[in-house]
Specification:
83 residues; alpha+beta; 2 helices; 17% strand
């Protein structure tokens, strides 16, 4: 279960994404990953989830970023496809 702090970071970062970043990022960086640090509203792109998170942590080692996959409803997909 997510902590209240994590839920608040996610809420604030999602708001930044929806209101400030979505249009540009979905047009220019679809299928990449973005990590958003909500206190600063800075964002970090990566070809992988790890790249985006690591970039955010280098810039803000003491803050919790929120990451998502650009243009998708979820950050990662779990499971296997049935044949």
């Amino acid at each position: 279960m997510a902590s209240p702090q994590s839920l608040e970071v996610a809420r604030r970062a999602r708001l930044i994404y929806d209101e400030q970043l979505r249009e540009q990022l979905e047009r220019e960086h679809a299928n990449e990953f973005v990590a958003i640090e909500p206190e600063s509203a800075r964002f970090f792109l990566g070809a992988t989830l790890s790249e985006a998170i690591q970039a955010a942590r280098r810039a803000f080692p003491d803050r919790l970023p929120f990451a998502l996959r650009i243009g998708h409803n979820s950050t990662v997909h779990l499971g296997a496809l049935a044949s």
